[in-house]
Design brief:
Order of helices and strands: HHEEHEEH
Number of strands: 4
CATH topology of one domain: Homing Intron 3 (I-Ppo) Encoded Endonuclease, Chain A
Strand order of the largest sheet: 1-2
Largest sheet: 2 strands, antiparallel
CATH architecture of one domain: Alpha-Beta Complex
Distance between the termini: 69 Å
Oligomer: single chain
Shape: elongated
Structural class: alpha+beta
């Protein structure tokens, strides 16, 4: 009898935890087929570092040579399972075509094929 009560309480706690995790708009909504990524602002260090520079292709890079727009997209937009592939398999598109505008709202994670289609490349 005590075992049944303990199992009932455990089941109820699991149900409550599940409802707490899936409730509200935290990027994922329970009981739907559509999953959207959580969008957060990137770390301030990535935004305006004094050691950033513009490379020969017109993109901002940090002191380590990493592309700033890819860092921001990885930290702010990329999330599994919405993007099932590894991040390195995606490209980051600047919606307004301004390579220096690295705001989260201007960046879009796309596949190579999608990126070619956006720019009209075959």
């Amino acid at each position: 009898m005590m075992l049944l009560i303990a199992l009932a309480i455990l089941g109820f706690l699991i149900y409550v935890l599940f409802r707490i995790i899936t409730s509200g708009d935290k990027g994922y909504k329970g009981n739907t087929d559509v999953v959207k990524p959580i969008i957060v602002e990137p770390i301030k260090i990535l935004k305006n570092s004094t050691e950033d520079y513009i490379d020969d292709n017109g993109y901002k890079r940090n002191s380590s040579g990493r592309l700033i727009h890819r860092e921001i997209a990885f930290l702010s937009i990329y999330s599994y399972p919405y993007y099932p592939k590894r991040f390195r398999e995606y490209q980051v598109h600047h919606k307004d075509l301004n390579k220096l505008n690295n705001s989260v709202d201007n960046l879009q994670i796309v596949t190579r094929e999608e990126h070619k289609k956006i720019h009209g490349i075959k």
